[in-house]
């Protein structure tokens, strides 16, 4: 039996916690909604100032007011992909590896001496 190499689990390979993911999604959502409010304010100011190409500026502001909330909701609900589908184990046989990660082979194990009483 060939001994498998022990590969330590690195903390840098660990996934972000659920709380960290939720916090970053909430911050992104609030930021995008802040940009939407900015579009509304800029649109109102532009109407009062009547700059050249007002129709173009108002169209861009309206697109921002409509598209940004849609994108904000999509991105706020976005999660990292799962590594394995939850039903994948039902259709594929599982491999059983009963040995712990750092188990010893039969030759490397210390032998127990059992005293036999007469």
In short:
The protein is mostly helical and 118 residues long. Helices cover 50% and strands 0% of the residues.
Word description of this protein:
This protein has 118 residues and is mostly helical. It has helices at 18-49, 54-76, 88-91. The chain starts with 17 loop residues before the first helix and ends in a 27-residue tail after the last helix. The relative contact order is 0.12.
Q: Could you tell me the radius of gyration in angstroms?
A: 30 Å
Instruction: Write down the secondary-structure element order.
Output: HHH
Total count of helical runs of at least 4 residues: 3
Q: Briefly note the structural class of the backbone.
A: mainly alpha
Number of strands: 0
Distance between the termini: 37 Å
Q: What share of the residues does DSSP label as strand, in percent?
A: under 5%
Main beta-sheet annotation: none
The helicity comes to 40-55%
Shape: rod-shaped
Query: Kindly state the mean pLDDT as a whole number?
Result: 79
Poorly predicted runs of 5 or more residues: none
Question: Could you outline the blueprint of secondary structure elements for this entry?
Answer:
Layout: H1 18-49, H2 54-76, H3 88-91
Helix pairs in contact: 1-2
Defining traits:
118 residues, single chain, 3 helices
